[in-house]
Write a structure and sequence with these properties.
By secondary structure, the chain is an alpha/beta fold. It is built from nine helices and ten strands. The protein has an eight-stranded mixed sheet, with helices on both faces. The protein binds 1,4-dihydronicotinamide adenine dinucleotide. Keywords: Oxidoreductase.
């Protein structure tokens, strides 16, 4: 069974932007797709059925297989109902793309608890809820694929996105452990950090840049990470505008102290501690 043929794949936030492209491509390649979207605004307010319905209709018109789902994946019940929809319609779930997201930008000085929490709830908690609901099926069938939407704003920081960046890097922390815990059941967990012109970026990046970033450029990468051919796990891939590359954490040799160092002794070794020349891929020293 090559690629994603007959695989049951749930895409959260698939009623527009990147998620829509993922759903269209996966269905074109023979997957059975659950198109989830709450149908609200960019800041998470409101809801509706037309976004998910429109994408499902597009898929069906092209001869593909898909069902719509309007659950709010930021809640445990919504995520459980979403996975139930996959199982009820297609018998199981083989893959989850946790792509749903909202924006509540603002400098940290002005970051309200409400804007912090709403963003964590959709991105980070949503990832937890949806993947957790799918996890028993992955383990039972010894096959599972997870892709979470990370962001260069989390990997590298971005002004005004403390809430968003924290949630996005939190998802990378999540897949790092899911990769370890899922390994013996053939469950792979990876992250995509996309760059694309969508409603999320329409007023953030300049038009000349956005013109070079059609969301379709990202879909094939996510499709590969969902496929039977993929064997990588805990990989973070940036994709946009035709360029696709991996981002990874590295560590240097550092310094070794045989007795608890004083502040002055740390200061004396600081270059040795921070110089990344000769650095190698990092690993958990306790793992
Ligand atoms: P988008 O706003 O078009 O898509 C997000 C979708 O998620 C929307 O259709 C929205 O209705 C849905 N959604 C929001 N909250 C939901 C909830 N609680 N339950 C179900 N659905 C919900 O934006 P875009 O750009 O397509 O973003 C997709 C993902 O990629 C997001 O996670 C975003 O943070 C991430 N991303 C996008 C980048 C870009 O350049 N467009 C850059 C980095 C990350």
């Amino acid at each position: 069974m090559p690629g994603v043929t007959d695989r049951v794949i749930v895409v959260t936030g698939a009623g527009g932007g990147l998620g829509r492209e993922y759903a269209l491509l996966l269905a074109k390649e023979g997957a059975q797709v659950v198109v989830n979207d709450l149908g609200g605004a960019r800041d998470g307010s409101g809801s509706g059925t037309s976004m998910a319905d429109t994408v499902v209709q597009e898929i069906r018109d092209a001869g593909g297989t898909a069902v719509a789902n309007y659950d709010n994946i930021a809640t445990e019940q919504g995520a459980a109902d979403l996975i139930k929809s996959a199982v009820d319609n297609f018998g199981t779930v083989h893959g989850v793309i946790h792509n749903a997201g909202i924006l509540r930008d603002g400098s940290f000085a002005k970051m309200t608890a409400d804007n912090w929490e709403s963003v964590q709830k959709v991105h980070l908690w949503g990832g937890y809820h949806v993947i957790r609901a799918a996890w028993p099926y992955f383990r039972e069938q010894n096959h599972g694929r997870v892709v979470v939407a990370a962001s260069t704003s989390g990997l590298f920081g971005n002004f005004g996105q403390a809430n968003y960046g924290a949630a996005k890097l939190g998802l990378v922390g999540l897949i790092n452990t899911l990769a370890i815990e899922g390994a013996r059941n053939n469950i792979l967990a990876n992250a995509i950090a996309p760059l694309a012109a969508t409603r999320m970026t329409e007023d953030i990046a300049p038009k000349e840049m956005l013109d070079k970033l059609p969301p379709a450029h990202v879909a094939g990468v996510v499709g590969y990470l969902m496929s039977d051919e993929c064997t990588d796990t805990a990989t973070v891939v940036v994709a946009g505008g035709g360029r696709v590359y991996r981002v990874q954490q590295f560590q240097n040799k550092g310094a070794v102290f045989t007795t608890p160092p004083s502040i002055d002794e740390v200061a004396a070794q600081w270059n040795q501690i921070t110089d990344m020349s000769g650095a190698e891929p990092g690993a958990n020293p306790l793992g």
